[in-house]
Hints:
The structure holds two protein chains of two kinds.
Chain A: H1 2-24, E1 29-32, E2 36-43, E3 48-56, E4 69-75, E5 82-98, E6 101-112, E7 118-129, E8 134-147, E9 155-167, E10 170-182, E11 188-195, E12 200-202, E13 206-207, E14 238-240, E15 243-252, E16 260-269, E17 272-282, E18 284-286, E19 290-292, E20 299-301
Parallel strand pairs in A: 2-8
Antiparallel strand pairs in A: 1-3, 1-20, 3-6, 4-5, 4-7, 5-6, 7-8, 9-10, 10-15, 11-14, 11-16, 12-15, 13-15, 16-17
Chain B: H1 2-12, E1 31-36, H2 49-57, E2 64-81, E3 85-89, E4 95-100, E5 109-115, E6 129-130, E7 133-135, E8 141-142, E9 153-158, E10 162-183, E11 186-209
Antiparallel strand pairs in B: 1-2, 2-10, 3-10, 4-9, 5-11, 6-7, 10-11
Amino acid sequence: MLKKIIGISFTLLIVAVLVFILIRNPKQTRFTVVKESYNTVSIKDEESSIVIDFYINKKDSFITDVNNIATAYISDQNQNNLINIDVEEFNYVGSIKIDNEKFYLYKINIGIDFNNDIELKEAYLQINYYNQENLKVNIGSFSSYKIDSFGSNNLSITNLKGIVNMVNGKKTLVGFAIKLNNINNKNIDVLNIIPLDVNLECGRASDVKNINIKSNKEINAYLDYPYLFDQKTEFKPLTINSEKYLLVPVYYNNHFEINNFGLKIDYQIGGLNKCFYFNEFTFFIDHERTIDLTNLTFYHYG
Amino acid sequence: MKILLILFIGLFANIAEVKHTPYSKTGHEQFAELEFENANRQLLVEMTDFFIELNLRDVKSRFWGESTEYYCIYEDAGYVGETVFSRSNKTREPFDFKYSLTEVDYYERSVYVEGSVTVDGKIKKDNVERKGKVEIEAGLEIEESKRTTEKEDMEVTVYPNKKISLRVAGEAKISSGFTKNYLFWVCVKKGAWETVDVVTSYFELVEEDA
């Protein structure tokens, strides 16, 4: 009987101590983002937007209340380039366990009213709150392009799909198949194809005629030279009389999992240089994406 | 007493077997084609009633609850989806068409049941975090109402007398099996089921004459 009383008393004491510790030291706010390559292309004077996934260990905290935000920016590390943004909302989506701790995912909807091209290889989201606190988070990279118009009177894209291979454990868009159609009677010289993302470059295109390109097949099966994702080949100009089906390899300056971007096609017709902008296209969606915990930086607040 | 027991079981169970007629040839509305990488495997829709019955006979009986024999667990497959959208322009002016992949009928998991069992939670990957990795899509417990709130619009221009289509194909993992539900050793529900989890989706934009 005495043992039982001692046991119960001891348990109660431990519980009381734990409760006391928890009350004395409220959980510190921790948050993180997955570094991504954010890119956007839009018509001049039109607002563009991006969505940033924001993981935080407290639901409905001070940080995620947009009413507390005074100003917000996307910038490079030294703030040499800084653009004003509008944090429209922190939209709660769901919860996830990261490193055995429960985190809440908010999608930050950001409106960008900036009328020039900007490319930041390392981008930071900076939010200043009315209480003089601020947060600065490395979000990956950021590219924003402002153009006069999409499309062209001379060229059209009649087919577009990506090739995705596994590179260093990441599903990587290693190239895309594109069918370009000459709408005019005059020959068109395609001078370059440029992916609208600061981390990407296109290489030497191969004319794949009418081969059925499979999106999950090794890109080396289609190219007549070996592909390495970080060793760029030069794009060689080519002439389009009526239609051409090209396989364009994509090279990475920084290896993010990039599944969506726009295209700029520089071409020449009748001695005139022109360009054709194509809107952002989602080439693939990875439904089982994993992130190494070592790639996540946890920030503290409060 | 026996009569009471049967009445009790009848109250809690739907003894009548429900037969679900597949809507598409794969048994899953969103997949026009679905194929195992291992050619020896069959989809549920390809299994004969005799084969299903034979496998159901092998399911171990128990006093209470569910008993399952798996046919396959998370096996590789390829799929071709139904066309995501198709828009034609028969006017003289081009028009811009905005779309969002979260708004179109697009699901990451598809379930097909032959019989009366309930399947929703079967073969969900429970190890969200493994070996220092976090599975940011599959591990997320999304509030159902929040699925369509993403702001990821895309825009395509449809030129006069042209039709733009977006098609989807990709890789999936198929799990299937045979399940019986027991109450006091009495089988009250039985059936075969199949779940398809989409792993990667590849999109293809096609422009044709309208």
